[in-house]
Queue: 3 jobs
Job 1
Amino acid sequence: NIKDPTWNQKPVVSREFVVKDVSAEIDKFTLETHGFQYVKHQTKVSKAEFADDERVKAVLYPEVIDLVKKLTGASYVYCYDHQTRGPVKPNANKEIPTENPVHFVHCDQSYDGAKIIALSRIPDKSFAEKVVQGRFAIMNVWRPVKTIYKDPFACADATSVVDETDLAPMPIQADERVEEAWAVGPNENHRWYFKYAQQPDEVLIFKNFDSHGPVRRIVHSAFIDPEHAQGYDRESIEMRCIVSYDQTPPKEDA
């Protein structure tokens, strides 16, 4: 039972699931019906520039903010972080390993954890308080740097995951504060999906949290596709956004 052990004593178990390719019916999956959505989107950031944090912040952040606003109708989007995953990330005269794909089913923020993120990351703290009092969401925008075969990214249909039985809060130490995610228990009723051979212009947007939406969150994970387990390493970049549907800051900064 995912609810029983304390967060740091929960066993990690492996399970085999059928993960269905969405390619034949990709338009069926939306943020409001399933919690995730694939959209076509070009970026001015070149493949070689994804390792350049400043270039990503200067170019990709505004692009993603505009994309999320247009897709959701949000009044305010703040891109607060990004994560590059792949074999290595060049930096000056040395190579720093980036994060590997996470083969662990989770949701980045619990319902309480989402408020912690919004209140701590939005620069204007008085405005942040207004955001969390209205309808707000936390969404990730996930993009391949090159075509994905190995360790593809899977999302579970939000309607197949039950809060009361499948999710448990998982505290995470983040610098000076404790944040909170969802740990997920295995359930044969979970319905899993991915995009086979996902291209760099096939962007996945998914909800970690929505305060008032018909779909409030999804759980997700990288998974091992036996046909491509020995392929080239996955390279991807994920942008993390706070989204408000009813608040606009006094001085627009997103």
Job 2
Amino acid sequence: DGLKVDSRLVIANFIPSKNCMRMTFTFKLINQAKLACFYVLGASKASMCQKVLTPHLKTLDYPATLVGTPSHPALWILDKEAKTTL
């Protein structure tokens, strides 16, 4: 599972639902980026945005919370509907 790998930058994952292999960037690689950006659109995403944008929440239950570093925090761009619960 790519979410738990910290010894590699990219791994190969088998995706049973698609019956194929997929290359996955690990957090180690993603967090070396100068900028990681999330675009969130729609009211259906509002409750999840409220969960993942809780300060200091870092958990594999919500992988997006593990993207970004203190010196390069993730940038979140939400439309009006997605930010209604914030």
Job 3
Amino acid sequence: MAIPAVFSRNPDEWRALHDKHFMIVGNGSIGGALALMAARSGVGQISLFDNSAVKEENLGRTFYGLATVGKLKVHALKDLILEVNPQAVVSTYSGDFRKLIHEGFVPNRANTLLVGATDSFACQSLINVLSLETDNPALFVSCWGAATVGEILYVKPGQTPCYNCYADFRHTAEEIVDDSQKYFDPDFDSTRTASQPGLWSNVLIICGFAFQIALALVGNGATGSMDDTHILFIVNAGDFNSNLPFWAVSKGLVRRGCAVCEEATHV
């Protein structure tokens, strides 16, 4: 198969990635950046999940432009992907991800990497369960505070602890008490964190490192630093008061031990 001209400067990556599938849940600053990194690297199939539309407040820390305001993020992001790689197969899902999973949605192919880039513990936990049930690896990426610190965790079913082994404490997070939506919206997600300020440059630093983990998970990156025990990576992208050195990446130990993966995986 001939290499498309757009990938002439990364032909080896294209050969390794053109038959891979990235399923990206959450298409905001993190999910959008990772989707476009995947497209520019040659990933051949990308599925996008997000039920929200682009707002003006999103423009300062995403690839979206003024012309996309009011457009569903999945559609705006699909257009951006196809501008780079028109041969990519891009599927969009704008429904509530929690409902899609409860209705029985599963990835329709192998070679899939599940990417959780949402601000909802409920959604991240469902991605975790989907990873365990389909035996596909998963990558969870988020920011702390004003995007000064990034949190990256990967899951390999049967080989690593799962997302809930590490993050189950978030299940008991307090509701967003000042959001009146919870009183009239039956689909209100009380595990969703409030929007935070943050620089686009910091988000890209975090996503750049996360994408290296993504490449390793699909077999196209250095795996020497992945021991399947220290599966948590903390990236200091701008917290000068942190105990972490500036721009440093720290690996964290995660131990298996939760009801979610106990039955679904084996040691």
